[in-house]
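Following up on my earlier thread - several people asked me to post the actual chain instead of describing it. Fair enough. Here it is, all 66 residues.
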Amino acid sequence: MALRGSMVVVLNVDGSSFENPRIFSFGGVLRRNDDNWLYRFARNAGVSTNHTCRVVSCVSWLDTDM
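Reply from S.P.:
Thanks for posting it. Predicted structure:
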């Protein structure tokens, strides 16, 4: 819960791999607590496992030109 007048930034990410290991994709949204999007991304990322897909989706937005 945000304090009145403060801004909270939320990162929502998700990824998917069809079977394991297979080609996986991921994406995410960086948004403020008023639901305005600051940044969004989606990528196909090659062949890997479901676990790797989750980790990559969480850290990949750090490697972008926002």
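The longest helix spans residues 50-59. That should answer part of your original question.
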